[in-house]
Structures are given as C-alpha cells and as structure tokens.
Design brief:
392 residues; 28 strands; 6 helices; single chain; Molybdopterin biosynthesis moea protein, domain 2; alpha+beta; 30% strand; Molybdenum Cofactor Biosythetic Enzyme, Chain A
Length: 392
C-alpha cells in the first residue's frame, strides 16, 4: 500500500504524447489549446468611445459646442473635430479625429438641435485607445490552456474560428459484478442497480472526454478478459470498477496481467478508495481498477484519474484547494489512511461535514461542495481549525 502523493506522482510520471487537431470554435469548450493564440490585430482596433456622449476637444469645454454629426457604432466619422465643435457618439463608436475626450450625455445641456454645452466641472477621457487591451502579435492565450467560456470570446476576437487543440483521450468504462443490473431494470433480490458506470461516464463527459461504455462484466475471468481486450483496441484508458479487492471473485488484477498490463500499484492509503490499482499496457494505454463502492470510485476519479486524463489532453491540472475553517469538531477512530470526507460550505464560509455512512453512501455527495482531507495520523480536528477542501 502506497500513500496518495506517491500514487499521484507515479501516475503523472507516465509519458504521454498528445496529438493536435483543429476544431470549430463552438466545439472547443473544455478542450486544451495545442498552440499559442496570437492576436492578428490591435484591440481595440481604433480609438472608441466608452460611453454615449459627445466627442470634443478638452480645451473647448467652457464654450458652446456645435454638433456636426451622430456617429453610431460601426460607422466611420465624416468630420474632424475643430475648435468649438463636437460629434455625438454612441458607446463603441469610432472617435473622430481631433477629439481628445467624450463628455457623457448626462453632463450635457442641449441648447438647440445642433448646439450643446458641458455642465459638469470635469470629465474623464472616456476613450478606449487603440491597442490598450491587445497589441498585434500579442500572445493572448497560451498553449496548454483549458478553454473555458471566457476564452471563447478571446479566441473569437482574434480570429481563431478553428483553434488547434489536443485530441481527447478515449476512455472505456467497465463495471464488474453479477449483482449489478442497469438503471432501467428493477433489481431482483440480492441485486443492485449499476450507478458507478453512469457516474464515471458523467465525470468523463464533464471533462469533454470521449466515453465508450462496455457494460457489466460478469464474475467470470474469461468474459472479463474478452471485454478488456476489446476495450484495448479502441481506447486510451480503461476504467474498471469493482473486482479489485481481496474477495474470491475479485478477478480483475489476474485478468489484467493476462491481458499484458504492468502494475504500478494495487493499493493506496486512502479512505475511501484503498483498493485502487493503476497499470499500463505495452501499447502505451492505461487501466485504473477502481473500487466498487460509488463514493470511492467518484473520489478516485477526481483525485487520481482526472490528472492523467488532463495530461493526455496536454493540460497541467492544478486542482483548487481551499483553506477553510471547520464548522464543528471532527473525530475518527482510525488514522492510518488519508481520509476524504464530503463537506458543505455553510453561510459563514465554513466546511461542514455532511452525514456520511461510508463509501457506499452515494447520497452523501448530493449537496457536497467539496472533499475535506484528513491527513494520516490525525484523529481529531477542532471547530475553527483550518482544513483543506477540494471543490467537486
């Protein structure tokens, strides 16, 4: 059994070689940039008005001003501003030559159809100057960036209608156990519905990772081996839940060995999630054996699988860890493993442990804000002590 930090180090030390492809901008969310995005123009590309108002010369603010024209956004000004002249401009419109400030409409008295007067004591320039946000040739987004909605706007503004991104890894999911039936089936006595597969599918899809679901493998070495070999042919990573512990029907480690996998670890000092294995195939593909209980498989995906998938997508994953005060005293009897407990974030900004019955209690994650880690050797944490919480 190895500690979590060592397990993660082993996983992230594996060599991967992400391939790049071009995709439509609308399909690039949660993909990873495979090249720097470089601006092909200044932004803004011209001096533009930051407000609705009148473009004029600051030196004329004490005088009556003649209105030359109205300039909506997208229209080129027809006149240069000279002494005691102005043009009415809309927000985003090009500032006419000669003007060095925009006076806001609310600071103006309209004297006639073509005359105004500035009524305030002073004004800001209210001009967004050419290139003040981005210059031609600037790197606006760096290679390896995980694209979020705000990045879509930046890519669009600099002309990346088909950004180059890294290919998504293909993940195959297999659940094991004769006791499982799919969600559309009513379980007979001794059976339970398969929740792990659909949870893992959702976790993969939330990352925009391609998923191939093989279904439920029965407690049979031969049939499990057939499913694993088939999954190997078309996928980069296999996720197997169940069958990895010490029971009489826990065949997965033996089957993986027969399929040609090499193990890096088979047990991690974590609670929940101890019976977790990680292996690789000579083809360069990987397999995680995850625990059969749903909270365990959820946690191990978030903590161990996700970092590898992001690496395969060309992204260095840096999970957010918040340092929050604990809302109430916490105790546990055993402290030989790193513990992850689901917590709420209460109105006071404190981490509040939810009611949690163990690794099969999937409902405990319903309202969870994150996972609180309790280090090895710690049996007690007092109310108000600072704890580490990973949002999920």
């Amino acid at each position: 059994m190895i500690e979590f930090e060592e397990a993660l180090k082993i996983i992230l030390s594996r060599e991967v070689f992400p391939e790049a492809e071009e995709v439509e901008l609308s399909c690039s969310i949660n993909r990873v940039l495979a090249q720097d995005a470089v601006s092909d123009m200044d932004m803004p590309p011209f001096n533009k008005s930051a407000v609705d108002g009148y473009a004029c010369r600051r030196s004329d603010l004490a005088d009556e001003l003649k209105v030359l024209e109205i300039i909506p956004a997208g229209q080129i000004p027809q006149f240069r501003i000279k002494e005691n002249e102005c043009s009415k401009v809309m927000t985003g419109a090009m500032v006419p030559e000669g003007a060095d400030c925009i006076i806001m409409i609310e600071d103006v008295e309209v004297l006639s159809s073509d005359k105004i007067k500035f009524t305030a004591e002073k004004t800001s320039d209210n001009i967004c100057y050419t290139g003040e946000d981005i210059r031609l040739g600037d790197v606006v987004l760096k290679k390896g960036l995980l694209i979020k909605p705000q990045h879509i706007a930046v890519l669009a503004s600099v002309g990346y209608s088909r950004p180059k991104v890294y290919r998504k890894p293909k993940v195959n999911i297999i659940t094991t156990g004769d006791e499982l039936v799919e969600p559309h089936q009513k379980p007979d006595v001794g059976k339970i519905r398969n929740s792990n597969a659909w949870q893992l599918i959702a976790q993969c899809e939330a990352m925009n990772v391609s998923v191939d679901y093989s279904g439920i493998a029965p407690d049979s070495k031969e049939e499990t081996l057939v499913m694993i070999r088939k999954a190997l042919a078309d996928n980069d990573v296999i996720l197997i839940t169940g069958g990895v512990s010490m029971g009489d029907y826990d065949y997965v480690p033996d089957v993986l060995l027969e399929a040609g996998f090499t193990f890096y670890f088979k047990s991690v000092a974590m609670q929940p999630g101890r019976p977790t294995l990680f292996s690789s195939h000579k083809s360069g593909k990987f397999c995680f054996g995850l625990p059969g209980n749903p909270v365990s498989s959820f946690n191990q995906f978030e903590l161990l699988v996700k970092p590898l998938l992001y690496k395969m997508m060309g992204h260095v994953y840096k999970p957010v860890v918040l340092h929050l005060p604990l809302a109430k005293d916490f105790h546990r009897k055993k402290s030989k493993r790193l513990n992850f407990i689901p917590v709420l974030l209460n109105p006071e900004g404190e981490a509040l442990p939810v009611e949690y019955h163990g690794s099969a209690h999937i409902n405990s994650l319903n309202d969870a804000y994150g996972l609180m880690s309790i280090p090895i050797g710690t049996t007690e944490i007092k109310k108000g002590d600072i704890v580490n919480v990973r949002p999920v």
